[in-house]
Amino acid sequence: MSLAVASACCWLAMPAHAQQAEGAAQSPAAEPPAAPPAADAVVTVSGSRIAARGFTQPTPTTTLNADDLAKSAQPNLFNTIAELPALQGSTGRTTSTNSTSSGIQGLSSLSLRGLGPIRTLTLLDGQRVVGANVTGVTDVSQFPQLLVKRVDVVTGGASASYGSDAIGGVVNFITDKRFTGFKVNVEGGQTTYRDDRNATLQAAWGRAFMDDRLHVAVSGEYGREQGIDSPGFGEVGANGRSWYRNTAYQIRPLSQTNDGKPQYTVIDHAQQYQYAKYGLITNGPLQGTAFGPGGAPYQFNYGSNGRPTGTGAVTGCVNPFCVGGDLSGSVGAGTNLAMDLERQVAYTRVGFDLAPDHEIYLTTNFGKVKSVFSPNPGAAKNANLTIQCDNPFLPASIAAACAANNITSFQYGTANAGFPANINVHPTRQMERVVLGADGKFPLAGKEWSYDAYAEYGRNRTDILVHDITLNARYNAAIDAVRGPNGTIVCRNPVAAASGCRPLNIIGDVPADPAAMAYVEPAMGPQQHTRQTQQVASFNLNGEAFSSWAGPVAVAAGAEYRREHYSVTGDPYGNGVSAGSPNTPDYPADPLLNTAVGNNWYAGNYHSASGTYDVKEAYVELNIPVLKSATWGEANLNLADRRTRYSTSGSVESWKIGGSWKTGIDGLRLRAVTSKDVRAPNLSELYAAAVVVNNVVSYQGNTITVQQRTVGNTRLRPELARNTVLGVVLDRPHWAPGFSVSADYFDIKVDGVISTLTAQQEVDLCTAGNQEICSAMVLNSPTPTSNYVTVQAFNLASLRNKGYDLEASYRMNLKDLGLPGRLTLRALATRTISFLTDPGVVGTIPSEGAGSNLGGTPKWKGLASQSWDTSQYSLTLSERWISKGVYSNEFIECQTNCPVSTVIHPTIYNNRMKGAFYVDLGGTYKLNEKATAYFKIDNLGNVDPVAAPQANLSFAINPTLYDVVGRVYRAGLRYSF
Which N-terminal stretch is annotated as signal sequence (predicted)? Predict the structure, then answer.
């Protein structure tokens, strides 16, 4: 109790959106909240399947109502939900923008407790939604958002109530099922840098017919956020952003760390010395020669007073970076900060009352989300090219220098800045979903029971197209040019020349030959086409079975069948199937390409796969009053059990035991819940596409060549979690009727975590005696070419996340101070004490993620708001806070007298990473009874993101935690009648 009150006092001036401490929501609305429900009202809560009088859940649930969502004024509800402190590690349009092949680009998926979207169950009206990715996670951008009247975030294990994937909790979007009238929302905005322009148009209409028996609601939405395009090469931020500094790790070899100096140093203005913007000779006597306009050679400026050694190294620099120098070829700043994202959503619900208490309904949901982004400019080649000295594109002075130094070739690196267009990725997700259902209530044995049943069919089609990207073999053939017998420049390889190769000049800043570019970058680039379907049949029943001396005993029970299927098809050049067939006319056969394995593209090598599984499950949940006393208060016991059978992994049980005690002390409530939760392996983990490459592993002291067969694992078992929450709530005591505060401790342990190992890690585990791993390989075949290692996911790792949530709110009527309206202060924060990940692999140790700000779980994440609301206008100030942290908890920080660095515990000069504090301002003004104008300014101080060093220069920021867009202005108009 003292902890809760003390924390509340500290937080009253800070974090925000209220958590549902009781069965009735304490929402973070900027408008004055509605009066709490009467004592005999039926309150439905998402922490449980129970809907009964007086029930108060033991599982904490944060609720945002329609006013809260409107006040956030975001073009996508995903952005509002992801700001809640318990949401950590969510993916959106600013994450994965440096990735071509991840498949999650443009996917708005929510993650609770940093456990990942795959361990957060996202529902629409308590119903599952077909996945928008092969991992099965949903895309919130495809949901109908204008008709959402409430979002419940269950911050605790809920598998017993809702099924698989609810290890971190549940996010449930509740729509207004009987909306009547018409409303429209128009919004637009842009950043302070005049980019990422966005526009939103939403409209909804609803009406009742046939004496209020037929209810029809329709909504349509269009939204466009134009993104932040790549500025190209060099240490230049997009559109005037000056914070980008090419931050990276400079890493000394492990063998040199016995000198008392740290192995890692964080540097700004990192200069990659293995390539230059338009080409650099990286080895041999000509090392350090770069090429500029027209191919003219010049001496490259390495920075750090670096001098080339002729062996590939550079004095004064640590591979692969110098500091300063010619930064024009840097590619990190060229990654889009935010994707161009377009939403089109249509939703209808038609309900008909067969009788006053019985309804049948049909809902349809169409959602199409298109995004576009560039992962990086050019196509950097890090000193891995060989240029022959007789290449006719070389300046005469370089050819002469080759002869003078008696060399016939040299190593070469280039950012390929001469390419006319950057790589651009185009993911499109399109969902069609239909639900036919019935709900109602009926009397039984003198009690009222309610039911709901539905059948759902959902389909999601995901198409990822990549343009302006090279085929590796064609690029290598095109740059290896020679002068032909008639003096023309041709490709050296006669097989390539016969199949259409056109020579490409990459020596210096010269115009790219369109014919050569068409050869190395064919019009049809990498493609991935995924089709996912979901079929669900569900029935749920709940009511009060009987009454005891302490109150009614509530029961919920139900059964569900679910079938999940996916198929994914990659293009022939990436997948490795035969090209040139009638089915692949856009991908002609090419003798240079690997038709067996694929992997021919610079990036985006998608492979084909398919799989299906089905689930049968049943559950029962009880709410049992165990105490009702004027002195000792009231107490409830909540029990749930679910039995589930998966067609792939067999049967598993999940359960929940919880309780809530409304003590005799005014306003004080205690709650506790512990549960066993599960996550079944998803379709991708079970049926991942097969990819075969050659590799080498060390086995019994020998290095042997093996086939590395990467594939899904149909023998995977469900992940099993133990989730415990202990909480204390002080809710509106008589001595402070506007004050509420809560504190909840959580402890989540997940065993059998599904993770993929390297081929060598699997061999080491097999040698250590793991028979399951041994069954995935053959290492002693009498025919050496028959040796293989199957690289796949196994249930080996474990996770444990511990921490606590704090929430406080205070409401007061300002009329006592002679002012109009009401003042509302709210604060919400999550403290992650520990987040341990144990890979379960030989030679590794558990790693601590809490406070590692390169990841997704800072030690503290907070949200706060202060709202002044009147009948005419409102003004809301809010704050978002991320605590300072470290780059990695495994680093040992030291400047001198450092211990010898190890793989597990490297040494680093400075292991401190700054936090962030953002202030947002919003307001509304009621123009008349039907129209309200509003504005919102996010990141009012235009706080720059904190640099996030990597071992390369791919991005150097962390958009999972930090705001990378900058100050944003938005304004809009809502109209309803």
Answer: 1-18
